[in-house]
Amino acid sequence: MENLSDDEDVDRTWENIKVNIKTLAKENLGLHELKQIKPWFEEECLGVLDQRKWAKIQWIRDPSQSNVNNLNNVRREASRYFRNKTKVYLRAKIEELETNSKIQNIRDLYRGISDLKGYQPVCNIEKDEKDDLVSDSHSVLGRRKKFFSQLFNVHGVKDVG
Hints:
With 161 residues, the chain is an all-alpha fold.
């Protein structure tokens, strides 16, 4: 630090110091990656967030009716996009859990279940006659129909599906 020339920018010097500290810490201590809270969140999601932020900034600068409508439309589209993204992720995760259950991979099954803790998606997973997990709605409804018809001895129940 003592042999810095007067024309060097202080900000650049501090940036160099910061980079050096991070590099040395990474080499000596190792890099600890934080677990991503939302594994479905990708680069494309950042673009949607930026669009929403930009629409809000435009509305703040000029609160005209057209900017209000634009902001509402962008918010609606962003919510729809994120909702669909999470649905696709959860479906894939549930299918993975189903597969782990079928092949008796209990360790990965419980790891997957513990990853989903804290969020309870609306899904129906039941066991069929072969003790396999079933999650598609037609199979679940058929299974429930059989169960309740046996439970109540009801004859002539219309077939679902």
